[in-house]
Write a structure and sequence with these properties.
Layout: H1 2-19, H2 23-34, H3 36-52, H4 54-57, H5 96-132, H6 134-148, H7 152-163, H8 167-176, H9 179-193, H10 197-204, H11 209-245, H12 257-263, H13 274-301
């Protein structure tokens, strides 16, 4: 009789597990139901597609100058009556549409790579600080406090002035500048997890500290870090645009959205609105899409809010 009851309980558990929808299915249903995050995801997929296949999509060389066609308005035909520049040209006659496409590559690449560097670095340091505590915790957190004592944009400007322009230097500065946020969150989550039963069970089984941190604790603290990363990509793209606007990002020969905004300053008084509007809209759409997707991801990963998404 007891065995039949046990079998019944096991069968009920198996049935409930089988009826439970997969993570991918819940994610898809939640995206379709929310609508705005789905639209944001579509915009980001298009941006990533443009960033990858930019050279094949761009109709012209983004650095090719044509002074005869300088400051041509969007859709304005040339002398032969042919529209060569859909979004117009800049002060040097360069095609705005092509430069906008190539600028997508820099912004997307810098945003995601910098967040990957800062997120990985900060998560690992926070994991070490929270798990071992004591002097390790004090040392890592004091370094974080020192970095937080300096405004990030001023620190980035100072470092880039010393190192010089370049995509690698820009990614390194933006990546290293983001690690503190991840370290603090990772440390706090690790402290709350390290004394739980599953960690004690792993120690009792003879697992080393590295395996416990990487296989037991890390998977359980990733959810808030992923949400922070989704928001952080947007802030890094804005920081890249700001630094490029100040002339401290990538070299001027590399088209970027922030660089295009900087070049449009002298032309805005003359009514050449397209030089600032198109890169500004590109930045706005990308950042807004990342923020909407991050907000939805936070609700989706939070068990308390999961029923509402």
């Amino acid at each position: 009789m007891a065995q039949s009851q046990a079998y019944t309980v096991d069968e009920q558990k198996i049935a409930s597990l089988q009826e439970r929808p997969s993570v991918l299915k819940r994610l898809t249903v939640s995206l379709v139901k929310a609508r705005w995050p789905l639209l944001a995801l579509i915009i980001l997929v298009i941006a990533v597609f443009i960033a990858i296949f930019g050279p094949s999509i761009a109709p012209k060389d983004p650095n090719r100058q044509d002074l005869i066609a300088r400051l041509r308005a969007p859709g304005e035909p040339n002398r032969e009556g042919v529209v060569e520049n859909v979004l117009g040209t800049d002060a040097l006659g360069r095609d705005v549409f092509s430069r906008l496409i190539y600028g997508t590559r820099v912004s997307i690449a810098v945003g995601f790579v910098a967040v990957a560097i800062g997120g990985t670095m900060g998560t690992m340091l926070g994991l070490l600080a929270g798990y071992f505590g004591g002097r390790v915790d004090d040392f890592i957190m004091r370094i974080a406090d020192i970095q937080l004592a300096f405004p990030f944009i001023l620190l980035a400007i100072m470092v880039l002035v010393v190192l010089g322009q370049g995509v690698v230097n820009l990614v390194a500065v933006l990546g290293i500048g983001q690690w503190v946020t991840y370290a603090r969150i990772s440390r706090g989550e690790t402290i709350s997890q390290r004394e739980k039963e599953y960690v004690e069970a792993a120690r009792a089984l003879g697992m080393g500290n590295t395996r416990i941190m990487m296989q037991s604790i890390l998977p359980n603290i990733l959810a808030p870090l992923i949400v922070i990363a989704s928001f952080n990509v947007a802030s890094v793209i804005l920081a890249e645009a700001a630094l490029s606007f100040l002339g401290l990002g990538v070299p001027q020969t590399v088209p970027t959205w922030g660089g295009m905004l900087a070049e449009s300053r002298d032309q805005l008084i003359g009514g050449k609105w397209w030089l600032a509007v198109y890169p500004g809209v590109a930045i706005m759409l990308t950042v807004l899409s990342l923020n909407i997707l991050g907000d939805w991801l936070r609700d989706f990963l939070d068990p308390r809010l999961r029923g509402s998404v």
